[in-house]
User: Fold these one by one.
Assistant:
Number 1:
Amino acid sequence: MSQPAGAAKRHSPLPRLDQFRRIVIKVGSSLLVDRAAGAVRREWLEALAQDIAGLHRAGADVLVVSSGSIALGRTVLGLPDGDLKLDDSQAAAAVGQIALARIWAETLAHLSLTAGQILVTFGDTEQRQRYLNARATIARLLDLRAVPVINENDTVATQEIRYGDNDRLAARVATMSSADLLILLSDVAGLYTAPPGEDPGATLIPVVARVTAEIEAMAGGAASCLSKGGMRTKIEAAKIATTGGAHMLIADGRVAHPVARLGEGAPCTWFLTGSTPVTARKKWIAGSLEPRGALHLDAGAERAIRAGASLLPAGVKRVEGEFVRGDCVLMRNPAGAEIGRGLVAYDAGEAALIAGRNSQDIESLLGEPGRATLIHRDDMVIAGERVG
């Protein structure tokens, strides 16, 4: 069988798990929940938690995107198998989210890890202000060495405005958190040339250098009634993740210690990116955003940011324009020339109040603690900078 377009030849070694600093692990309902019993597969979850603890001890940040709330809640409420009406799904999620959060918190606590629950909706990853708030919460949890456990907020999501599967949600979380690896634990070992249950001649594709039309055509449907996803949504997730600068892999999650086995060379499919989260973000800032204002810097601030520093309020002489937190603004030197652009951490009125002042004065000026930087170095592009 000829190699599919987009599949990469194994000329160079694949990445290793210990190379990654921030990893998102997606766990599906069919892995976490025993369908017949309607209960969590505790031994499997405990083994996965040990894998997470191993990554954590090695210094990596780990985030979990976990399905399972509806699957758990429907059992408690005695709802039938099969597709549920929207209001029944929302009721099941309301009950199941409590159980899911408790199970993750208890399992990770046994390994001296702190879990933090985050429930998101489609709008939280697609609308600028809500995206920034979610990103900031995740960043702070990781700073505190907690393990965020994230799920779609199915109690309020509707059929029209929702992800509906945690594959694409996990990819959005990966880009939002600047993760460099997304692991999708599945009920297959990866992407095959054809559905392996239907074609005994199907072969595993170990590496996908880019998602082509031929790669997309290999996707199948959902594997079980507990899972909303399928290979199609995993391919969509790969496009999101790799565009955002994260590698992605699909691996068999049905075995014990599924992540540790990957470190030992277990079969899987890698989707590779030629970028990093930072360079992907910088490319987006450089080419995709319309500036909403400008910050006029003094000479010292210009030298500092050209040397790779973040922009502090003390280096800003004047604020121009009407913008809100998260908007793209220009940075101008004392002569008025554009020297770069970036995503600003304050609204225009707040930026004007703290301009020229020490970061330690922010709380007294604004009445509450704030970020020390006006533009973080990862959120700015300097004129002439090569960003991939």
Number 2:
Amino acid sequence: MPAIYPVILCGGAGTRLWPSSRQDRPKQFLKLIGDRSSFQDTILRVRDLAGADEIVVVTGLSMVDLVERQAREIDAKLTVIIEPEARDSAPAIAAAAAYVRAADPEGVLLMLAADHHIAEPEMFREAALLAIGAARVGRILAFGVQPTSPATGFGYIKPGALLPSGVMAVDAFVEKPDLPTARRYVEEGYFWNSGNFAFTAQILLDELAAFEPEIGDGAIESVARGVWDGTRLLLDSEAFGKTTKKSLDYAVMERTSRAAVAPAAFTWSDLGAWDAIWEASMRDAEGNAASGDVHLIKTRNVLARSSGPFVGAIGVEDLLIVAEPDAVLVCRRDDAQAVKTLVDVLKAGGRDIAHRHAIAFSGGVERQPVISTSQAVVQLWRMEAGAVAELPACSLQVLEGELTAAAQGYAAGAREDLRSPALVKANLATSLLVTTWL
């Protein structure tokens, strides 16, 4: 029987979850609910799925380090397909299908978003196996979630007749509705469109050839001409650039006669905004969800999170309070969608804080600003054991741990003026002050 290939789409910035989610560290890598990220939970949901072969992740070059680091934390092996640029979901999915087809033309792709929360993994696996069975007989499956409210932030699926494979035909895909329309959809038995799919590689590429040949052809060529190192496939940028920027819904799902919907009974959220995080979190008797250095007094129905400063709240209700080392957000829970408006204002003003955290992390090195003057910039670097980084010409102070640079070592307490950039390795977990003189 053809193998199952779980494919996880790992892109996007999640601006409604600012200030925690930004382009340099988007929401799928944040531990927003429990002690694992949604990306890690997605891997764990499919790792032991019966019949599953390799797990494939499609992501951008800037996220590869985060993808591989978080996979190592849960001891998961991945194949990583790297997009040269973001071109929406259809080209990314087409590239994954082209990759799978080269190994197994009848292989079934279980296409999943990295940033969704599913509370019952066993129920997810049951729905996935139902969808996979229908995909093997030529259907393109969308996972349809039973609505719990007349949400206006999701697309909907109007189900049709029950099919022999146990799934339902699709009568229509509909866009995000206004509230009265959403209420009608819920009353009439529509599903939320979760944005997760199942199909064979060959069928998906055949449909793209019929409806969007530029996407299919460009994706196939980008895989064929890509650079493969055994765990990473860097798609060819020229070929991938020929694809049309378009979502899979617009490119295929709304046009194909093969569409079907697999009803899903599990609790699902796309974690699209802070109110969704509050909904999905464990809450105390007063309805509060708190994490980090937080203390709440006479407070009800509040989400309060801190990854830096202490947060105290007294006598408030229905608020979202999110504190990062460089930014604090406070708003009413029913205004959670407006966070994107705030981020747009920051972007329009050229504020770097809209895109990047002040504390940067890459390659096992965390870089935290300490002070900046007209004469010097001081940063605190924390390096994981084994991490390698290039130091600029700077004044170096090793606070703890041990560094090696070329033939020279620096133990805790060492001070050195580096006259030129130097490649260093942390033999132990190491903290150092790096002063760059202007």
